[in-house]
Specification:
Layout (H helix, E strand, L loop, with lengths): L9 E6 L29 E6 L2 E5 L5 H7 L7 E3 L5 H4 L6 H7 L3 E5 L1 H10 L1 H4 L12 E5 L4 E3 L2 E10 L2 E8 L2 E4 L7 H6 L5 E5 L12 H11 L3 E5 L7 H5 L6 E3 L5 E3 L1
Parallel strand pairs: 3-4, 4-5, 5-6, 10-11, 11-12, 12-13
Antiparallel strand pairs: 1-2, 1-14, 2-3, 7-8, 8-9, 9-10
The structure holds zinc ion (3 copies).
One zinc ion (ZN) binds next to loops.
Length: 261
C-alpha cells in the first residue's frame, strides 16, 4: 500500500444551504437579497479528494451547476447521507461520469437509502431496464459499518434527523454530519480526535429535525474538533453577522470553501 491512506484529504463544500437554498424563491429578506456572495447557497454537497480519487457526498438538485462551478471532472464514488430531495435530486447528472469513464460509480448509503435510491431512479441502477443503453450503471452499496474505499477507512455515523436514522461519514480525521437533530452516544464515540467537522446548523429558532445554532454549538463543543464548519444554513442566518459572534474554531461554511485535513 506504500503511502496510500496517509496523504491529506482536500475537502470542498460545493453547497451549504438548507433544502430551499438561498436565495429562497420569491423571498426579499435581507439575506436572500444580500450582496455577500457567502449568503448565496446551493443545497448541501461536498467533494473529498485524496491521491487521484474524488468522492462526492450527496447529489443535490444543483449538482450539474456545482460540477461546472467547482470543475468536477471525475467521480470515483458517492456517499449518501439520506434521500430527502435536497440531497439526491442531482443524481441523474452523475451518469455523465459513468459515460466519460465507461465504468460504474458506486453509491454508498444505509439500507433504507439504497432501497429508496433504486425506487426513485430505477433506470440508473437496474441493468434490466429497457430504458437504458449498454453504458455502465450506478451501483448501490449498503453500508452500516466501517468500510474501505481506495485504501481509506470510511466510517458511517448514525445520526437522528428527527425520528429518521440517517448517516454522516468520517474519513480519517474529517467528519461530515448534516441534517441532524440528535447524535447518538455511540456516534459521539466515533467522533473523537477529529481535526475538522462539518455539522448542520439550520437557523436560530428550534426545529424538529435539525440542530439550530445553539444545539449545533453544544454538539460541536462536545465533539471538540480543532475546526468546525456549519452547513445546511437557512435564510435566517446572515453569514457575516453570525460569524462575527462565533468562536474562532467554529466558522460558517460557504459555497466554495475548501480546506485540507
Ligand atoms: Zn437536507
Ligand atoms: Zn429570505
Ligand atoms: Zn433531510
Amino acid at each position: 500500500m506504500g503511502m496510500s491512506g496517509s496523504g491529506k484529504l482536500k475537502i470542498t463544500l460545493m453547497g451549504t444551504g438548507t433544502s430551499h437554498g438561498i436565495p429562497m424563491i420569491a423571498c426579499k429578506c435581507p439575506v436572500c437579497t444580500s450582496c455577500d456572495s457567502r449568503d448565496r447557497r446551493y443545497r448541501c454537497c461536498a467533494r473529498v479528494e485524496f491521491e487521484d480519487k474524488v468522492l462526492i457526498i450527496d447529489t443535490p438538485p444543483e449538482f450539474r451547476l456545482q460540477c461546472l462551478t467547482y470543475d468536477v471532472v471525475k467521480i470515483d464514488a458517492i456517499l449518501f447521507t439520506h434521500t430527502h430531495a435536497d440531497h439526491i435530486f442531482g443524481l441523474d447528472d452523475t451518469r455523465r461520469f459513468t459515460a466519460i469513464y465507461d465504468r460504474a460509480i458506486r453509491c454508498y448509503g444505509s439500507a433504507r437509502t439504497v432501497a429508496s435510491l433504486k425506487s426513485i431512479f430505477p433506470y440508473a441502477f437496474d441493468r434490466e431496464s429497457p430504458m437504458i443503453s449498454e453504458r455502465p450503471q450506478l451501483c448501490a452499496v449498503e453500508v452500516s459499518e466501517s468500510f474501505d474505499l481506495f485504501g481509506r477507512a470510511i466510517i458511517p455515523l448514525e445520526l437522528y434527523h428527527g425520528r429518521l436514522s440517517i448517516l454522516g461519514y468520517r474519513i480519517g480525521n474529517f467528519a461530515y454530519c448534516t441534517d441532524c437533530s440528535e447524535i447518538p452516544e455511540a456516534t459521539y464515540d466515533k467522533l473523537r480526535g477529529l481535526d475538522t467537522l462539518v455539522l448542520g446548523a439550520l437557523r436560530y429558532t428550534p426545529h424538529p429535525t435539525h440542530f439550530n445554532v445553539e444545539a449545533a454549538l453544544a454538539a460541536a463543543g462536545r465533539i471538540g474538533a480543532r475546526q468546525t464548519y456549519f452547513t445546511h444554513i437557512a435564510h435566517e442566518i446572515s453569514h457575516a453577522d453570525l460569524e462575527s459572534r462565533l468562536p474562532r474554531h467554529i466558522r460558517l461554511g460557504f459555497d466554495g470553501l475548501s480546506f485540507e485535513v
